[in-house]
Structure formats: C-alpha cells, structure tokens
C-alpha cells in the first residue's frame, strides 16, 4: 500500500515537472521583438520577468515612452514630486553639463529614477536628445565596451561630466532627492553615491 502511494507521488511529480518545463520551452520559443536603434546594439532575444523585451545599446528617450516600457515610464514620471526650487537653482549649470544615463528596462530602480530624471530635464527645458541613454542587459554584459569604459556596476547610473571631467554620478537611487543630488554634484559639494568608497 505504501509503495503504491510512493509510486503515485513520484509519477505525479514527473508529470508536473514535465508540464512546467514544456511551458518554459514554449515561452522561450515565442518570438520576442528586439528593439535596436544603433549599430552599437547587438540583437539578443532577452525578456524580463514581465515578458517584456530587454533592450540594450544606445537608445532614445522616445523608446521608453512607447509600449511596453510606457506603463512604468509614465508612472515614474507622474509620481515624482518635483522640487521646483532646486530645479530653478540648477537650471543653468545643468544645461552646460554632459550627461550619460545607464539603465536597465528590467530594473525597478531604473524604472523609478530614470523617468524622475527626465521630469527634471523637462522642467529645466533641456532637450532629451542631448543626454546619452544606454540600456544594458540584466547580466550587465551588453553593450560590454560602454559598460567597461564607464565602470558600470549598478543601474541606473547617471553620470555628469563637464569638459571631459566627471563631476559625479547618481547610482541606483538618489540619496536626498533627484534634484538635490544633481545640485550637490554640480556644486561640487562632495556628493557620494551609496557605493562610493
């Protein structure tokens, strides 16, 4: 009697396991649209936990404002409480700064911080096309040359440079607020991101 029960449980386990593996195989074989915008972008069929394509390479902001990324971009943009006083104080210096943003479309921190960053730019009146936006894979292995060149370990990473010199970077999340962190970086107030040594 006990042996029959054990055999039944083992058989049931194998059937369940085979069923789950079949679903995973079917999900992987579904065609996933790859969004590519430059020759620096390689094409991989990667999807995030929500089933959305993971894009990587040099992108445009407009890509984030289209489905499937639009759902989190719009929420992050709308929910960021803009500090208009600080934005007014950083407007001139921010306009003279070169900015590079590394992010992952799969990353919750990127989904929160990057739309907030663009909201600040919009309020200041900076054209988003002046910002270099680079999306990377979850394993941070593409585009490899850009990741190594800038020492990217966490995303998002927003790098501020002036005349070829890095002023500072916001890494993964803002410490005070997006606006205040930018102000501290631009003013040279000794801002350190959470992972700075």
What does this structure look like?
With 197 residues, the chain is of the alpha+beta class. Helix content is 45%, strand content 13%. It contains seven helices and five strands, in the order αβαααβαβαββα. The chain has a five-stranded mixed β-sheet with strand order 1-3-2-4-5. The longest helix is centred in the first third of the chain and has 28 residues, at 2-29. Residues 1-44 have low confidence and may be disordered. InterPro entries: Thioredoxin-like_sf. This is Thioredoxin.
What is the fold's blueprint, element by element?
Layout: H1 2-29, E1 57-59, H2 61-64, H3 70-79, H4 84-95, E2 98-103, H5 108-124, E3 132-135, H6 144-150, E4 157-162, E5 165-171, H7 178-187
Parallel strand pairs: 2-3
Antiparallel strand pairs: 1-3, 2-4, 4-5
Helix pairs in contact: 3-5, 4-7
Question: How is this structure best summarized?
Answer:
With 197 residues, this protein is α+β, with helices and mostly antiparallel strands. The protein is 45% helix and 13% strand.
Low-pLDDT regions: 1-44
Secondary structural class: alpha+beta
Assigned CATH architecture of the largest domain = 3-Layer(aba) Sandwich
What is the CATH class of the largest domain?
A: Alpha Beta
Question: Characteristics of this structure?
Answer:
alpha+beta; 2 domains; 5 strands; disordered N terminus; 197 residues; Thioredoxin; Glutaredoxin; five-stranded mixed beta sheet; single chain; signal
